[in-house]
Amino acid sequence: MSWTNNRAGRLVSGLAPLLLPYLVLFCGGIMLTICQSFGVFTPLPHAGAALDAYAKILTDPAFFSSFGFSLGVAMVSAFCTMAAGTFLAYQVWQLPAKLATAALIYKIPLILPHISVAFVVLVFWSPSGIVASIAHSLGIIQTMQDFPNILYSGWGLGMVLAYTLKGTPFAMLLVLALLVRFDVRQIQTAAMLGASGVRIFFSIVLPRMAPAMHTSFIILFLYGFGAFDIPFVLGESRPGMLSIHVYNLYFKHDLARRPEAMAILTMMFFFAVIFIIAYSKTVQRLENGVRKL
């Protein structure tokens, strides 16, 4: 028993440099957010009931508009990013060794901050941007004002473009990490037996890439759902993303509304947890059903 306790003590002491920042910053921040959503530890004394902030949020139509808009932008951008990253990773994996080395240029967006990618999209796709200037020079449009309002059309297309541009290399990186360990002889054998390229991809290659695809989708969806930087530059005014709604409540309103901002953050956190659990169980059931077939 003493040996087990000593071993556990050494393990805890060895992990302390990693555990302490996690407990203090992450867990402490979550607990403070939850407490302030109930009116505890707020900058101003909270005179109402503990659930007043949640009641105000859940009866506010603007919250549900922002939630639905954030959900749609995150879902579309994550799906487009996962699909583009998977397709491009498969194409890069099939390249000869020399060309595959040159294809590492796809990693460049990984080093760019998200807000930089947002400004890149703004420079290219705004009505006075590069694409509009080229279209005007070629005579496709008569004036710059004729260029369609892509970024601020009310559909969140600017944010989808930015998330796709930034996230595609990340999805490629995860998928390629699995493909480099894939035995090419399985594809060669299937081709020798008469399987078409489409059948080989969906029956052999795609199941191999599926774990990386699911992981990338979860990460990209949750980031797109709660991120602030890209919506701050490319976000719509109405309906706005939830992160912008929280920012406005936190910084641009009276301190008495701080619990409302924290209530939204708390609900976003628990939504993320529920989404991960539900998505993982759904994928597991589908995979088990495929195996039974």
Distance between the termini: 49 Å
- Total beta-strand segments: 0
Q: What share of residues is helical?
A: over 70%
User: Rg to the nearest angstrom?
Assistant: 24 Å
Order of helices and strands: HHHHHHHHHHHH
Main sheet record: none
- CATH classification, class level: Mainly Alpha
Oligomer: single chain
Q: What structural class is derived from the secondary structure elements?
A: mainly alpha
| Uncertain stretches | none
Would you tell me the overall average pLDDT? 84
Account of the protein in words:
This protein has helices at 2-37, 52-58, 61-94, 97-102, 114-125, 130-137, 157-179, 184-192, 197-226, 229-234, 242-251, 258-292. By secondary structure, it is mostly helical. The protein has one domain: MetI-like fold (Orthogonal Bundle). The longest helix has 36 residues, at 2-37.
What are the SSEs and their pairings?
Blueprint: H1 2-37, H2 52-58, H3 61-94, H4 97-102, H5 114-125, H6 130-137, H7 157-179, H8 184-192, H9 197-226, H10 229-234, H11 242-251, H12 258-292
Helix pairs in contact: 1-12, 2-12, 3-7, 3-9, 5-7, 7-9, 8-9, 9-12, 11-12
Could you give a short description of this structure?
74% of the residues lie in helices and 0% in strands. It has 293 residues and is mostly helical.
Characteristics:
293 residues; mainly alpha; 12 helices
